Structures are given as C-alpha cells and as structure tokens.
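Here we describe the complex-level prediction in full. Unlike the single-chain runs in Section 2.1, the two entities below were treated as one system.
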Amino acid sequence: MNEQKAVASRHWKSTLYYTVLWVIVLIYFFPVLWIILSAFKTKNELLATPPVWFFRPTLENFIGLFHRDNFWPTFFNSLTISLSSVGIAIVVSFLAAYALSRFKIVGSDFILFLILSIRMVPGAAVVVPVYLMYAALGWKDSFWPMTFFYAMFSIPFSLWILKGFMDGVSVRFDETGLANNASRFHIIFKVILPQVKPGLIAAFVFNMIFVWNEFLFNFILGGKQTTMIPTLLVSDSVHEGGVDWTFVASLGAIYLVPPVVALYFFQKYLLVGMTFGTVRGEV
Amino acid sequence: MRRIENSKLYPWLLLTPTLIFFAIWNIVPLFWMVGMSFYNYSLNLGRPPRFVGFDNYTDYLDSVDVWLAMSRTFTFVIFSVGLTTLFGGILGVLFWRSTKMPGRRLALTLLFSPMILTPAAIGTFFRLNYDPTFGIFGYFTRLFTGHTLDYLGTEGWAFIALLAVDVWMWTPFMLLITLAALGSVPSAELEAAEVDRLSIWRRFRYVILPHARFIIMLGIILRTIDAFKVTDLVYQLTRGGPGGTTEVIGVMIYRKAFDALTMGWTSGLAVITLLTAIAFTAIFLYILNLQKRRRALK
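The structure predicted for the assembly as a whole is:
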C-alpha cells in the first residue's frame, strides 16, 4: 500500500516537473510564436489594440508576399548562394582538415588560429575592407563573388569541425591503407570520409544556417541580383513611410522555417555546431 | 600520381585551396584596410586619399565618441555574458534531469531556436513587439503601468531593451553549454556524492565544478566574443539611437563607414577591433590547449 503511494507521488512529482518545464519553454518561445501567429492575421487584427488572441487564420499575407515581384528571386538567391557556397567550403576544408590532421606541417597551429580568428571578428570590421576591395574590382552585386565570399565565411567553421572529427579517427586506418598499397586519394575519400560523416553533416547543416542567416555582407556587398531573405526583410520592411508589419510577419515566418526544422532534426549536432567542434557530448 | 602523393609538398597541395581563399578574402582586404587607415579618405568628397600617417589613430584617443562606444560595448559585453550565464545556468540545472520529458526534442528545439535565427530578423520582430502602440510588450506595459512607453525611443530604456533581446537570444547557448558541462560529470562520482550525503553546495564545488569548469569556460569566452561582435541586432532595433545611447563599436564602424562614408578613419577603428578579436581568440585557444595538455598528462 505504502509502496503504491510512493509510486503515485513520484509520478505526480515528475508530471509537475515536466509541466513546469513546458511552461518555461512556451513562455520563452512566445516572442517568436507571436510573430508566426501575426503572419496569419489580417492587417487590422495585427495592429489591433488590445491584441487579438483568437482569430480566424488567413493566408492573405502569404499570397500577397508570393505575388511581390522580388520574393521568388530573393528566395532562390538565398537557396542557391547558401547551397553552392557551403558545398565549396566543405570540399575545400575537408582536404585541408585531412592535411592538418595527418601531416606535421610547420605552423599548422598558427594557420588554425588565424583561420578561427576570422570568424571571431565583428562583421562590421571585416565588411569595410571587403567592401573597398569589391568596389574597386567591380565585384559588387554579382553571384560568384558573393558565393565565394560566403564560402570563405564557412571555411573556418568547417575546417575546425572536420579536423576535430578526423583527429578522432585513428591513424592506423591510414597506415593500413598505405601498407596495402592504397593511394592517398583512396584513403581520404573511401576510408576517412565515411568515418567523419557526422562531422560533414554538422558542418553542412550549420553553415547552411549561418549563410541563410547572414545579413550584413549581403546588404553591403549585394544588390538586386544577390538579395537574400534577411536583407529583403530589413530593406523592404519600410513601406509608404510606415513599417509594413504584415510583410515582416509573413516573410519572417517563412524565413524561420528551415533553420528551426533543421534544429529539430539535427539537434545532436547543435553543441558541436555552436562551439566550432571544440566541445563534444550529448545534450 | 604516387610521386605527387609521396612528395613533401603533398600536404600543402591539400591546403592550397583553403590558403587561396584565405589570401584573396582575408589577407588582401586586411592589407587594404591597414593601408587605408593611414589615409584621410571620404567616399563622398570625391578627392583622392591623402596620407596622414598615424593621425587617425591619435584621433581616436581624443575622440569622446570612440571612448563612449568602447565603454558601451564593454558594459554590454559584461551584462550580456553575465546574465546569459546566470539564466543559462539556472535553466541548465532545471533541464538536467529531463531526459524522460515528453516531447523533449520539440521543447529543446523551441528553446534553442532564438540563437539560430538571424539577429537581423530578431531585431525586426522585436521592433514590432516593442512598438508602443501595436506591440505586445507595449500593450502589456500599458496594461500594468497605465503609461505608454516607447522602449526603443527613450534614452536609458533603449540600452536595457536591447540588452534584454540579446540575453533572450543567447541564454539558450549558455543553457546548451551548461547541459554539456553537467553531462561531462561522471555519473559514478555523482552517485558517490549521493551516497555520502554531501550538501548541495559541496556537491557543486567538489564533484561537479572540477569536471564542468572547462566546458563552461569555453562557453563563456565564445559568448564574450559573440557579445563583442553585436552589430546587426542593434542596427535593426535602434540604429545606435536614441541620442547614440546604443551605439556599440560594431554599429559605430558601420555608421562611420556607410552613412558618413569616412573610409580612412573607419579602417583604423576596424583594425583596433580586429586586434581585440584576435586577442580573444588567443585566450580561447589557450584554455583549449590547457585542457588538452592536462588530459595528455593523465
């Protein structure tokens, strides 16, 4: 009898504990949730005071957004620029990571340090010289210079993650391969690559998010041909003197779907992703 | 093929693409910027750059604006890092034992999402939320105090409002770090502490902290670097206003370069910021290597 009571009380305690946690989560997420809800309101409901809590959801804002002539080009820019730049960055840094992990290279620590520092500098300090260079060379507002810039932007992170994962793969694999007369090329792509797949996935997913999110460089170095979603969100939010809130809410809601979905499916890589591969562990 | 692979230059061959990227997009702009910092060059005057030596650098020493922006940045960094560490730590301890929570993955996704959204969008969202008439925060303020308060347009409040958004965005990061740090404590030691009936404080001090310390330190430094970088968020929320009270160093560089178009003067300031960031990175790596060395000794 007593045992049953103890089990029941433990059950109640854990239910209460999880309820409290869920309430915290929902309060925390509320500012984002509010924007998502706002995207489904009419303009009058969105700007109503007091705020409207219950309303009939409408897709009007999204339909309006899809009919703007700059929405689809911007969307495809975001997609193509982030895919191609991250693709390039991963290939380039995969090779470099192998070299830095397997060979004793003079100054390799220094190379890794310099490359990491790039990502630690405030964007505003980097964008000034890059702007001067792009303006002088006439590279502003064109696809490949923008893509290559973002590839550079993604390399430090990918290199650090991939090197971390490769250091975890024993050199024995390379030695066995070499002893069996396999080529380095074979070892790199057929032996090592499958074993660092988690690193490749983490580097790919998080760099996609970072490039998809990037605003400052796109805003300064870009133009009509290369506008991406965050830039559109910022530059087109002001309309006829006031802020066009239905536009902000609907584009914002579309913008945040890919990162949040990626976060759900690749949650176990988040720790590696946010610490440049320096901290491992389960969360 | 084999000849190439056995040559001493082979590793450098693998590194070449990275080094090319590094040279074109970092070394060249860097030298450009350092060179430009010795010139007086404004884009709007249409005059060729004029060499001024170290004038730009001595100008920062005399400039009240630069000192104010620096002190604002450091105030921002201290409060942002301190508060995110505090809240992240509390949430981390709360969520530590939640492995059996129903819908945990979804809950953590929602909780972590602020830090993976772009500051540009977050800033725009919060402009709406903070709006004194239409915003949800403006509404609650009116409901509870009876006054209308324009957080982002009032000196004194704008900095706090900005800090609040930043803390909201980055507390999940310190939560993540805390969870990882707590996860690095061996469960055998925790159970031993349980059996020995150590007090909570002693458990924390002698069992958890020695293991968790390293990850937490790395987290705090990464957080410091990120708080120091803040630009997009401020630009989108307040543009450095009202009355310059939220003009941190990143925003100052942006405004001097692209609103005032004084490229020479701004380049020098960017060089100083760059050196500061490199110093932070060196500290980060120092701690990282410290831990590696300790592990190697064991």
